[in-house]
Amino acid sequence: MGKAGKALKQVLDTYGINQNQLAITMGIGRSTVHYWVNELRDPLAESIPDILEALDQLHPEAVQEFLVLYLGRFVQRELPDQ
């Protein structure tokens, strides 16, 4: 399975967020988060913004770490001035 589940598991462990907390904050079933974290199913692309929003509510620092773990160097690069 994909990188999102690994990144999510690491972030939840690091910041002491349990799967149930994330599921409740996102308004989804805990089993869905369980599938993601245990790499049985990848979150859909449409779920990533919801994951970020929930992480922001539960532990704001977790958002950046998830993004770096999931997207790597693409997040670490500075965006050009517009």
TrEMBL record:
<dbReference type="InterPro" id="IPR001387">
    <property type="entry name" value="Cro/C1-type_HTH"/>
</dbReference>
<dbReference type="InterPro" id="IPR010982">
    <property type="entry name" value="Lambda_DNA-bd_dom_sf"/>
</dbReference>
<protein>
    <submittedName>
        <fullName>Helix-turn-helix domain-containing protein</fullName>
    </submittedName>
</protein>
<dbReference type="GO" id="GO:0003677">
    <property type="term" value="F:DNA binding"/>
</dbReference>
